[in-house]
Write a structure and sequence with these properties.
By secondary structure, this protein is of the alpha+beta class. It contains 6 helices and 17 strands.
């Protein structure tokens, strides 16, 4: 079998996205033939090498699974079990494959979240150059004014750069729609707080051409081939 870089091999095996796999390697969670390996570029061959992540044997690539979840509030996006705190993957406990969320959502945010075991798919969605638009519906405690909309449209500094939403639109008295494509952590929350608005509810309803629709909160379903094509456009 052709040799692969360790990080790419772990992504193909459904351990995590390639970026997350690299972090796991850097943090010493991965062993190759019994030796902790800290270099993501290490070449491995599934037929010859034994790979373990946190002492769990990884045997190779899995069948690829893709799910749309309507995430309820209170669940944390993590691949590791947490004491006394529920994680998103608890909803997939009956699945034998090792799954992970495509990116992260705030613990108290709800709505469309993708869950998969395909690290390459996750990388495509998360890559900033992909320009995949995410749409959110935000409810706040104040009545939204024209000044609020102007401030929201200006964006905010998130991490090391200034980001601006693609679209901001008032829906009703205390609700607005916002579309972003940067994919920065807490981006929508930071932009909203800069406009001095207090968030009551934050819900993602669209990723690319993929729409949450009527999927009940807390439930998930497999993506169709057509939907996979939509979200990767």
């Amino acid at each position: 079998m052709k040799e692969k870089r360790l990080s790419k091999a772990l992504a193909a095996a459904g351990i995590a996205s390639r970026r997350a796999a690299e972090e796991m390697i850097f943090e010493g969670h991965v062993k190759v033939n019994g030796v902790v390996t800290l270099v993501p570029q290490t070449l491995i061959d599934w037929d010859k090498d034994q790979i373990r992540v946190d002492e769990v044997l990884v045997t190779g690539e899995q069948r690829k699974l893709y799910f749309m979840l309507n995430k309820p509030a209170g669940l944390i996006c993590s691949i590791d079990p947490l004491k006394n705190r529920r994680i998103v993957l608890d909803l997939f406990a009956e699945k034998s494959e090792r799954l992970f969320t495509v990116g992260r959502m705030d613990q108290n945010a709800t709505g469309l979240l993708l869950v998969t075991n395909d690290g390459h798919f996750a990388d495509k969605i998360l890559r900033s150059s992909a320009n995949i638009i995410k749409e959110y519906i935000v409810k706040v405690s104040q009545e939204i004014t024209a000044d609020h909309l102007e401030t929201l449209s200006q964006g905010a500094r998130v991490d090391d750069r200034w980001v601006r939403p693609v679209l901001v639109q008032k829906v009703r008295r205390g609700t607005f729609k916002i579309c972003v494509k940067e994919g920065k952590k807490h981006e929508v929350r930071i932009i909203t707080e800069r406009a001095n608005l207090d968030i009551i509810d934050l819900k993602r309803v669209r990723i690319g051409g993929l729409v949450l629709g009527s999927l009940p909160e807390g439930e998930y379903r497999s993506l169709t081939e057509q939907e996979l094509a939509l979200v990767q456009k």
